[in-house]
Amino acid sequence: MKIVVLDGDLLSKGEAFYDVLKTIGEYEYYADTDYGNEDEIVQRIGDADAVFINKVPMTESVMKRCPNLKFIGETATGYNNVDVAAAKKLGVTVSNVPTYGTMTVAQFAMALLLEICNSVDHHAAEVAKGRWIKEGKVSFWDIPSIELAGKTLGIIGYGHIGHAFAAMAKAMGMNIIASHPRKMGQKFDLGMYVSLEELLQQADVISLHCPLTEETKEIINEKTIQQMQDGVIIINTSRGQLIDEKALAAALNLGKVLAAGLDVVSTEPMQPDNPLLQAKNCYITPHMAWSAKAARQRLIDTSVENLKAFMAGMPINVVS
C-alpha cells in the first residue's frame, strides 16, 4: 500500500500525528500542496493507492490521471472538495471523519457568540492599555453586554454539532428552535422544529451547522436576511459559502444584523476584496474552530482506521 498525505500541516503543525502510517505501508508526506495546481496534485499522488487530504480538491480529472488511486481519506467532516460522483464512477472509495470535532466546534461557536455579547477582548485590551487606572471609576464599558437568557437560538443544521451547541445555549437559558422541512411543529429534546421561515422570523441568534449543498448554498442572503428580526446575531462555523457575503456585509453596515461571528468565508484563505473585512461588528477567525489538539488527534486516529477498514475489505465512514 502506497500512501500520500497532501496537506498534512493543516492538521499536524509539526506534531507526529501521521507517523502511524509508516506501519501500514510506504508513506509520503507533504506539508501543503497548491490547491490550484492540478499538475502538482497529480504528480505528488503519482502511483499511490491511497491519499489523505483536507482541503486539496479531488476532481474527476485528478482521479482519472491517477489510475492506481483506490482510496481518498478526507481528514475532515465536510467533503465538498471531492467530486464524490466521479469517485463512485471510477471505483474510488471516499471516507470522511464524521464526529471528531463535535464538542470543539460547538465550543468555538459559543466563544464567538459570547465575544459578541460580552466584548471581552475589547475591554481586556483597554485595561491592558491602562485605561481602567486612568478612568478612576469602579467600572466602565464601551459596549453594554447582551444577556442570552430568554433569547431564542435558531439552528440551521441540527446534527451532532448543532445539537452540542444547542445544549450549551440551553444551559445559558436560551430557547431553542431548529429548521426541518419534514418535522415542523415536532418537539425534540432541547426545543422545537420549525420551518426555515419561522426560524428566520423568531430567532435572536442564528447559527449555521449544515453541510454545503446546492440547497444550502447562500442560504443566508438578501431575501432571508430581510425576514430576520432587526438586531439578529449570525454565527457560522460550517462553510463560508452558506452566506452571501455582500448581502451580510450590507446588513451589518445598516444595522439590520447586529453582529456576525464567522470562522469561515467563501474563499479561503481570505481574499483582500472580501466585503466582510470592512463590515461593522464582524468577528472573523481563520477557520480554526476544529483545531484543538484533542480533536485533531481524534481526526487522525479515525482517518487511519478508515484506511485500515478499507484495506480489510470492510470500508467505514464511506461517503461515495
Reconstruct the topology from this structure.
Blueprint: E1 2-5, H1 9-12, E2 26-29, H2 38-45, E3 50-53, H3 60-65, E4 71-74, H4 84-90, E5 93-95, H5 102-118, H6 120-128, H7 131-135, E6 152-156, H8 160-171, E7 175-179, E8 191-194, H9 196-202, E9 205-208, H10 222-226, E10 232-236, H11 245-254, E11 257-262, E12 282-284, H12 293-311
Jot down its keywords:
single chain, 320 residues, alpha/beta, Rossmann fold, 7-stranded parallel β-sheet, 5-stranded parallel β-sheet, 12 strands, 16% strand, globular
Summarize the structure.
It contains twelve helices and twelve strands.
Strand content: 15-25%
| CATH evolutionary superfamily of the largest domain | NAD(P)-binding Rossmann-like Domain
- Under CATH at level 1, the class of the largest domain stands as Alpha Beta
Mean pLDDT: 96
Helix count from the secondary structure assignment: 12
Task: Report the biggest beta sheet as strand number plus sense, adding barrel if it closes.
Answer: 7 strands, parallel
* Total number of distinct structural domains: 2
